[in-house]
Each structure stands twice: as structure tokens, then as C-alpha cells.
Amino acid sequence: MSAPAGLWGRLWGFVRPHRSKLVGVVSLNLLAAVFDVFSFTLLIPFLNALFEQPQLIPGNKVVSAILGTTIGFLLDPADQMGSLRNVIVLVLLAVTLKNVLVWLSGQIGAQLQEFVVRDLRDALYAHLLRLPMSWFTANKVGQVISRMLTDTTNAKAVVTELVTRSIWSTAQVVSTIAIMFAVSWKLSLASLVVVPLTVLSLQPVLRKLRKGHRRMGNEQGEITSMVQEVVSGIRLIKSYGAEVREEQRFVTRNAAFAKGYVRIGRLALMSGPVTETLGAVMAVAILWFGARLVLVEKSLDGALLVTFLIWVMRLLQPLKQLSQVPAAAQQSLASAERIFEVLDSPTETAADRGTITVPTFATSLEFEHVTFAYGDDAPALSDVSFSARKGEVVALVGASGAGKSTLIDLLPRFLEPTRGRITLDGVDLRHITLDALRSLTGIVSQDTVLFNDTVRANVAFGRTQVTQAQLDAAARAANALSFIQELPEGWDTNLGERGSRLSGGQRQRLAIARALLSDPPILILDEATSALDVESERLVQEAIDRLLEGRTVFVIAHRLATIQHADRILVLERGQLVEQGTHADLLERNGAYARLHALQFNRGSE
């Protein structure tokens, strides 16, 4: 097949742990192929008995030895009907045994396929979890899902082709060709001329197929992304009456996707007709050449020629299947390439050079001339410097796109500074291991992330040893214990996708309980009360006040009224830190913060 050797080697790495099953499949297929050939070899004494030949076993040395050893004692030229009966019984037994072996190999082969795709999917999922945030920013959700589910399933077909089709077909071809050469090397050579012709004629098609399947894999990812976006934004679509527009977008992309697969199918279907046509030419040539050996040269028995022709015709099917394997495998190989693209992406841990595993936070966290840019874009942060002492509440304000979220993402090293450094008690964050650094930080965001799991699992998320008393204490402090106890199954109630069974305020309080339970010294708070009703906001704000006690807190402020008591307010504009100070100091300066404050409060008073 026209696939890079390295790709096959990497796929073999996932097959190797299950090689005992592979050996079993190969062995059973070889035995089944031997019994398949043997069942047709029994036609020779059958034909000789049918046409009342004096010798039921032909003079060919190899065939004579096989038949003489296995069934010679059952053949009696004087009892033609008895010999025919015995041969028929043996044919039935051989065919039955062959099919039992094929069934067993299929069962083991199916296990091998599923175990391989399971391991492939496990490896891909584990790797995805360890990729940096920048990778997820650059790749659409639909593409990630497509590689995780569709591509791993498609890659399984490589194992399917190799195990259930290629090995069985190869065993049939090898055993059949072996007996054919034993009968007549001249006829066999003439028969096999077609094989290299078939392989060479299909190579251009195979190259186009893999490129096409790789392109269609990307297209499928785009369709998955579109569906994911529509499902997530269905409320917005309905509120704007945009169903027809979204339907047309999907129909257009789906039509292009279907046309692409039609083009690929047109190429894939060429292998069968090419192989069969060449096979028919081969059969006619053998028939003419074999008739000459029987009638003119007298070097071949008629029964051997008939059986040889049957072998050749039986050979066409596995040859046809083998010729289709490369075409069928191209989609799998394209999917495998997409999978290994992800597996080859460097993980955070691979790039982590931190050595400090038990950091402390005793005095301050400092930004020293920090600049960050996404790729070749203009810097999202430019030369930002400030200090946050332990126990301070630091608020970040500024218009959308000012760089607030980027600055926050630098703290747990979701992003790394392009220039400058961030220090914790004088130690560069890059010298602290990712696990250790992130154990110091907790995040509560406005867009609360809850998983389709129990309340207990969501609050204890990331912790392996948690007592019920600890859970109750954290929930009580977060004003969440009362509603948790009222749920149908209490702590064991499943929350549904993204916590859909809870209100916005309840989801926020669970997120705060989770942060309280982890007890991080550094807290990142994306203002969590802006989208809540008055009563929910009061309960959440009380919980937040408890959460802030004794911690260094970074608050992304959307409403300036909520951060007036912050120890330090940082004002960002277009990635630059333009002002910092207390609420009163900044109002007195009558600068950027004062303008934002006036704009917001004047709007609120209208």
C-alpha cells in the first residue's frame, strides 16, 4: 500500500499489546485456507471417478502424495459410487471445518479491532487533556470531537482490513498458488502475470484516495463544529428567527461534503472492475494454454486442468479483495494521520521546565514588564508591571479586549509571557511545575462549568480524598447546602449537562463551594453575579465574601460597583496598564477609570 512506513509502524504500536490475538487470527486463517484448498483438491478424485478413470489419484507427485496420504484408503477404483460418496462426505467435512475456523478467527479479529481502537482513543483523550490552552484556541471543538470519535473509528478499519480481509485473503492466495505450482508451474506463471499489472495500475488511484479522505475528514470536523455551535446557540437562533439561515448554511456545507465523498467513491470503485477484467483475461488465457497441455502435449490430466481452473477462479475473489484493501484503507490512513497530528502536538508537561514542586506564597506576586502576543498578532499585553501582596484583592477593569482575560490566564500558566516574567515570592512561575502552581490557584467564573455528574463529584472535582463533613462545610459556606439537601437525591443527584437542572445562582454557589473545598491561596474570580436576580446575587455575594477571606484575589470586574472596596484596581486599555490604585485614588485622578465609572453610572441613572 502507498502509505508511509512510519504510519504503519505507529499503528503497529497499538496492535503490539494484543499480538497474541493477532497470532491467533493469522494461525486460524492459515488453517482455514489449507482446508479451503484441500476441499477443492478433492474434486480431482471425484471427477476421475465420475468419468470412470482407471486411476482416481493422478500421477502428479505433489497432488498424488496429498491425496494418497489423506484419503487414499477411502478410494476404490472398483467401487466408483462408494468412492464418490466418500469424497462428497470429506468435502462437506473440510468445508465445515474451514468455516468453523473462519468464524473463530472473525471473533478474535473483532476483539482485536475493538481493543486497538479503545487504546487509540484512550491515548488520544489522555493527550488532549494535557495539551496547552493555545492548542484549543487554535482548533475548533467540532474538529476535536471528530478526531476523537470519527477518526479513531475510521482508523480501526486498518486493523479490520489487515485482520479479517487481508490475512484471510493472503492465506487463500498463498495456499492456492502453492498447490497450483505443484500441479503446473507453466500454467501458474501465466496465471500470475496479472498480479503486478493490477498493483501498478492502482497506485495513482491510491494516492488520490488518501488525500481525498484526509480532506473529507477536515470537512467532517467543520460540519461537527457547525452542529455543536447550533446546539449551543439554539436559544439565540430561535429568538432571532434565524432557523432558515442556519439551515441553508448547513445544507450548503453538507452538499459539498456529499459531493466530495461521491468523487472519492468514484475513485475507490475503480479497483474492483480493473481487477476483475484482468482476472477474466487471465482465466481465458489459462483455459487456452491448459487445453494445449492436455490435448497436444499430453502433460496434464483433464481432471487436473478442471480443478486448476476452479482454483484460479477461486483465486480471483481473494485477489480482488486484496486489490480493494489499499483503496479501502486510505480513509483509515487519512484518519490515522489526523490522529497522530494531535498525538504529535507537544503537551504542557513536555514543555514544562519547572523543578519546584512545593512552592509557598508568603509575600507577593509580581508582574515584571510582561508582554504577551498570540502568534504574530499585535500584543494582547504590553509591558505590564504591578505587584499583588498576599491577602490583597486586585480588580481588573477595562473595555472588552483590553487584556483582562489574557492577564488572568498567565497566572496558572495557561499562557506563557512572550517577554518579561511573573514571580511568586521572587521565584519565576516558569520554575514551578504546572501541577504545583495550579494547586495554588482556584477559579470561579461567570460561565460556571459543571459536569454531567453528581453534586458530590462536581464539588469534590479534582480531589480524591474528601469527607462528607468537608463537603457540607464548603456547601454551607457557599450558601448551597440547603438547596443541595432539597434535591431529589441530595449530594448524589445528577446535575445534567452543564448543570442544566439548576438555576444560575445555584450553579454559581456550587462553583464557590468547589473553590472553598480546594482552599487555594490565590483565587481568580470572573465576576459571578452579573447575570443573577437580586436574591441569587445576594446569596452568591455572601458566599464570595467568605471565599475571599485570607486569599489573594484577582477579580475581573464587569460592574465597577462590585469592586469599590478592592485593595488595588488595575485599569487596562488595549493591553497596557494605564492606571492602578484604589477606587478613591483613581476617581480623584479623573483619568481612564473615572471615565469608565462615569459612563457606567450615568447609564445606570438614565
From TrEMBL:
- Membrane-crossing ranges are 22-44, 56-75, 87-104, 189-206, 267-288
Q: Name one Pfam family in it.
A: ABC_membrane
Major location, coarse class? Answer: membrane
Where is it located?
Cell membrane
InterPro entries named in the record: AAA+_ATPase (IPR003593), ABC1_TM_dom (IPR011527), ABC1_TM_sf (IPR036640), ABC_transporter-like_ATP-bd (IPR003439), ABC_transporter-like_CS (IPR017871), P-loop_NTPase (IPR027417), Type_1_exporter (IPR039421)
Q: Would you name any one GO CC term? A: plasma membrane
Domain named ABC transmembrane type-1 is located at 23-331
GO molecular function list: ABC-type transporter activity; ATP binding; ATP hydrolysis activity; ATPase-coupled lipid transmembrane transporter activity
Kindly indicate whether the keyword Lipid biosynthesis belongs to this entry: no
Question: Where does the ABC transporter domain lie?
Answer: 365-599
Keyword Cell membrane in annotation: yes
Signal peptide stretch: none
Tell me the keywords, alphabetical order.
ATP-binding, Cell membrane, Membrane, Nucleotide-binding, Transmembrane, Transmembrane helix, Transport
Q: What domain of life?
A: Bacteria
- Lipid bilayer topology: Multi-pass membrane protein
Know the name of this protein?
ABC transporter ATP-binding protein
Query: In which organism is this protein found?
Result: Gemmatimonas groenlandica
